[in-house]
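Let's practice the habit of predicting before peeking. Look at the sequence and jot down your guess about where helices and strands might fall. Then scroll down.
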Amino acid sequence: LGTPNLAGQLGRALLGASIAPLWGAVGRVAGTLDGLGPRRRAAAALGAGILAALLGPWLVATAGPDSTVPFAVLGTLDALLIARLLRATDGGRRTARAGLALGLALGLTYLARQEVVWIGLTLLLLAVPAIRRLDGDRVRATLRLLGPVVVGGLMLVVPWLLRQQLTFGGGAAGQVVDNLLLLRNEQIFALHDAPTLGAFLAQGVGGILGNIARAAAMQLTDTVVLGAFPVGVVGVIALIGLRRRPSLRSASALVVLLLSGAITFVATALLFPVATLWGTFQHASGPLLVGLVVAAVLGLDAVMTRISIARGWDPVNVIVGPAALIALTVPVTLIQLASVRGSALEMERRIEAVAAALDVAAATAEDPAGDLAAPLVSDHPMSLAWLLERPVMVIPDDPPAALGDLARLTGARQLVVFGEGDRYPEVLLHPMGRTCLAEAPVRVGLVDAPAWLFRIDPACAVR
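Done guessing? Here is the structure:
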């Protein structure tokens, strides 16, 4: 559409519009399994759908090209299709069609996030009882049930992997291994100081377990408790009270969401404890939060049913529970949106001032056309790239001399640092760091919140 950011927002808005009906469908199916009457089922579906439309994490994630909303939507679709497949266990055409549809949906989910592997693991765990119910040899029964799923998934995944190989020389397997061994998130951007198994093990048992504990605590507080407040808290409490409900004791869509979400929570904290501090679980939390929303609505429905019976209300009051939860969610969402909007506008103001300063610097340079064509290096590469419409790369997590290597590899000439990290710009302002700069640094942008503009010396190199 000519503006990448607008295209990303529009795509996520259109995709995100399906969150409400999908969550409503999960609530309606769960209510049917629990034997709720038509009024209570409708209230559960409507309440889940409205909460989906109002929950802060989804609205915030829609503002940019982020994987959160696609994974939440497609993960919910996967759950509904998994439940459908496990009901269609005749081994005939109905099973094949359901399996093929599920495989295609899982393939699309893979294109959103690789945490689809935990949804796939959930399918395997829940498929065991279904396979046992099928007639004949267990291997053949497994192939009849899961074979179409594999075929459908490969139809989408294989072309993507081929594209990755042709474009980048490989897939994301190497990045996954790096994420496993991270000592700090900035290592993702290292040119030379890449994560290694030796450095990872050198942390010792205490360091490794400490990272896992911090990761689990952050995932629980920032994503489940605070990020989805109050729905996350109410949902967890409701699960305890509803644990004997049929919707939680069968291979329902609600169970798929909760189980896959719980596996994702545990696996992310155990395997990627450092990476998740930058949002790995937050972006993949969609299925778990969907399950908690539906559980919260069903839990409040059960509470209001008991109150209605105790007070002799006829019919049962089915509105107060979802309405109260929605009323509590709205102000939390508004606070989250206001906070994100405020920080985004402040950063936009800073970046626009820096962009204007870069235009002035390029106009007075010896080779202005070359400066404008060359890629930049920055600690805010995505924002600058959107605003300037030119390539911007992240600062490598290496000694300052690595900037010279990056300049020779990519043709980069300038470095812009906003100074919000632990190392920059202080390390470049130090006399030892300046040896890799072609000129003295220049303060640019706003007076009250300046950035630094450096010109990189390509002769500098890591020895």
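How did you do? The beta strands are 376-378, 392-394, 414-417, 442-445, 450-455.
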